[in-house]
Amino acid sequence: MANAGCVSLATILFLFIFQAALPQGAAQIPVVSQNLVTDNVSVVEGEMAIISCRVKDNDDSVIQLLNPNRQTIYFRDVRPLKDARFQLVNFSDNELRVSLSNVSLSDEGRYVCQLYTDPPQEAYADITVLVPPGSPIIDARDEVLSEGNETEMTCTAMSSKPAATIRWMKGEKELPGKPKVELTYDRMYTVTSRLTFTVDKEDDGVPVACIVDHPAVKDFQVQKYLEVQYKPEVKIMVEFPQGLTREGENLELTCQAKGKPQPQRVNWVKVDDDVPSHAVITGADLYIENLNKSYNGTYRCVAANSLGESYDDYILYVYDSRAGEGAPRTVDHAVIGGVVAVVVFALLCLLIVLGRYFARHKGTYFTHEAKGADDAADADTAIINAEGGHTNSDEKKEYYI
């Protein structure tokens, strides 16, 4: 303790002698020079700030760091100020670097780096203390909503510095809110955002998130899931038959109803008439055996819950028992007739081509007419003297087609 007291006393005496040795005017009017530089610092409350005083061109002048009240924190590598949160990080001819741990709002302000030259040079480092908001609080006016109704939500981010900003997301869609900023007595900011929107049945189970943006925190949010009630959605499914409904066949229909709350009552009715007496209704299923045309009409499934009722219609038309059976054979005959026509046309074309071919390559036949044979003395002479013999075969030709 004695050594510490000696050091503090020696430092004070040194500062007093040093300041007294400076020219009076220069000590009172420091100048801001680019030779001495520092940086502004933003730090979250409770964390550590680093203040750096740097000299570009030092002529062995002394560097010191002052707090916003212009009290000396460090003079060279000596700390006259009795605040153990300040610690020396580095000291050289060109830099004085000091750390400040466990920063609080009272530490915020302008710190002075001072270089003892003639006149003294100064540079300023502004420390800004960031205070993150508390956990956001989301509040909904309605816990359970009805389709088509408007609802309102609020989200509050308390006690932050600077003021936070609030965004709203419904599922993947961003919605605009109306913010309100209040400055509290302790220089903190409280932000409240109000969101108003209309819900539909697709919003049931969708999260609504309040996202708080602040320099001191990231991805700070809270969400609430919507619970939306809606009237039933009704759809009639045909279980049997899959094709035409013909006389003598059976019909089975199923009514699918979905709503919130789930429909407790599902009814089958026939529009403008009564359901056939032998029709079997089991819950959401309708079953009719041995159909005939007297059953034609519109069958309606009606489902209801506390928000209202909805329905879906199925129009029954009973065809003759053989309806649709002739269609495949008619199609087959048409196909066969088309194939036959193509074959006949092809044969005709082939015959025409062959006829033209043989007409161009037909045989040549020769006949002999006995001219002057009547004047011959005997048969041998007549044959020899007759025109058209082999010796004169080119003189007369006869063609057969």
Contiguous low-pLDDT stretches (5 residues minimum) are 1-28, 327-331, 364-371, 387-401
Distance between the termini: 149 Å
Task: Tell me about the largest β-sheet.
Answer: 6 strands, mixed
What is the percent of helical residues? 10-25%
Our count of helices gives 4
Taking all Cα atoms into account, the compactness measure Rg is 55 Å
Model description:
The chain has four helices and 26 strands. It is elongated, with a radius of gyration of 55 Å. It is 17% helix and 41% strand. The model is unreliable at 1-28, 327-331, 364-371 and 387-401 (pLDDT under 50). The protein is an alpha+beta fold and 401 residues long.
Note the main attributes of this structure:
26 strands; alpha+beta; 4 helices; six-stranded mixed β-sheet; disordered C terminus; 401 residues; five-stranded mixed β-sheet
Summarize the structure.
This protein is an alpha+beta fold. Helix content is 17%, strand content 41%.
